[in-house]
Amino acid sequence: MRAVRHQSFPQPPKHEQLIRWFRDGRRRSAEVFAIPKPEAFFDRPIPLRNPIVFYEGHLPSFNINTLIKLTLGKTGIDENYETLFARGIDPDSEDAAKSPTDVWPSRECVQKYGRESDALIEKAIAGSEIGEAAIAILEHEQMHQETLLYMFHEMPYERKIARAPLWGTGLSGRRRAESPPPQGRAHIPAGDATIGTPAGSFGWDNEFPAHRVHVDAFDIDRDNVTNGEYLDYMKATGVAAPHFWMQRDGEWFWRGMFELTPLPLDAPVYVTHDEAAAYARSRGARLPSEAEYYRAAFGTPSGAERMYPWGDEPPDATRGNFGFANWDPVAVGSYPAGTSAWGVRDLVGNGWEWTSTIFDGFDGFQPMKCYPVYSAEFFDGQHYVLKGASPATSPELIRNSFRNWFRPNYPYVYATFRCVA
Asked: CA-to-CA distance for 351 and 323, rounded, in angstroms?
């Protein structure tokens, strides 16, 4: 394996750092899987996805398939499991959703397989050169922790166990920004944006190759569209309420991870791409392109570019609502230390940001050797790029080149938006 750098480390990571990252990831996944009550293990909270049992088997089997079998060319543990749990599903409708089986293994068997996989993976990391595959399995685990929370968010409250946020004290319950949010938009002058990650650094295949793009001048909302703004839009147009809202006795509520609360009017609204685009059109505006997001997030008036909106310092709990600091979004502008050079806030954290860019490979795209089907099958014109991070995004995934993507009508993702003119 070719040694690679990772943005979280100043030098190529050492074996002990990777093993610590692996253990932390597996521990965090165990905490996430402890949210559903034991009797809910075979539930299917999102009809477009597999039942919960699949994902507890998928994470360790992905590690075996990717690092042990494909990269190192060695034998796995259980061929049946490594086939059954190999790939998830992404159907375009509930009618097209089909799980790989109707008869799933017991949780005891799945967890036993997971323990055997963990032991083999640790041994492999300790004895191999640290390359693309080793880091891929670590980030893959973190990505699934977030998508698992999308699923668990859909479960009835009586089917899950409330837990404290998994990182720090967070801002749970705080709905008022530290200062009134600035009104209007920030002007971003024309300039270039460097999109993608440089060779020699770890990135998923859709992040390569790095390239420069000229971006015309534009104006962008300083804050994400809030629930209050979207509520006014609903009243004026009669459009349906977003997925995460619920109405009772004429009052609107936020359907949080563990409780129903009065709708926080100053928090960002979570919507589909279709809903976001329609709202923007109603304001005579549009959604930003991926390149415009880059320019607003990482560009500066001097022409230099930053690693993060706030500068080159690594993410921490003061910069945004990410890393499991909260289960739900908080008021826009609650993290002034995360503001970009142009005065645009919350570009990382509090919700992924929809863009108008259809997900596709950059010129010169090549599938990654350790996971060749990661991106290419989604270059179908039916998925849009999202940038930034949500409350459930791990800090290691927060880099300027990381690209998320979903279908435009998918309602379960923690995704918000802002408008551009």
From this structure: 12
Q: Cβ neighbours of residue 25 under 8 Å, at least 6 residues apart? A: 138, 141, 142, 145
4: its two tokens: 């690679």
pLDDT, tens digit only, all 421 positions of the chain: 456 778 877 677 788 889 999 999 999 999 999 999 999 999 999 998 999 999 999 999 999 999 999 999 999 999 999 999 998 867 778 877 788 888 999 999 999 999 999 999 999 998 877 688 999 999 999 999 999 999 999 999 999 999 988 775 444 444 444 545 656 899 999 999 999 999 889 999 999 999 999 999 999 999 999 999 999 999 999 999 999 999 999 999 999 999 999 999 999 999 999 999 999 999 999 999 999 999 999 999 999 999 999 999 999 999 999 999 999 999 999 999 999 999 999 999 999 999 999 999 999 999 999 999 999 999 999 999 999 999 999 999 999 999 999 999 999 999 999 999 9
For the record, the structure tokens of 163 come out as 């837990």
Amino acid at 394: S
CA distance 354 to 408: 9
> Exposed, middle or buried, 344 (CB in 10 Å: 0-12/13-18/19+)?
buried
Residue linked to tokens 């863009």: 355
> In terms of Cα–Cα distance, which of 259, 243, 260 is closest to 251?
260
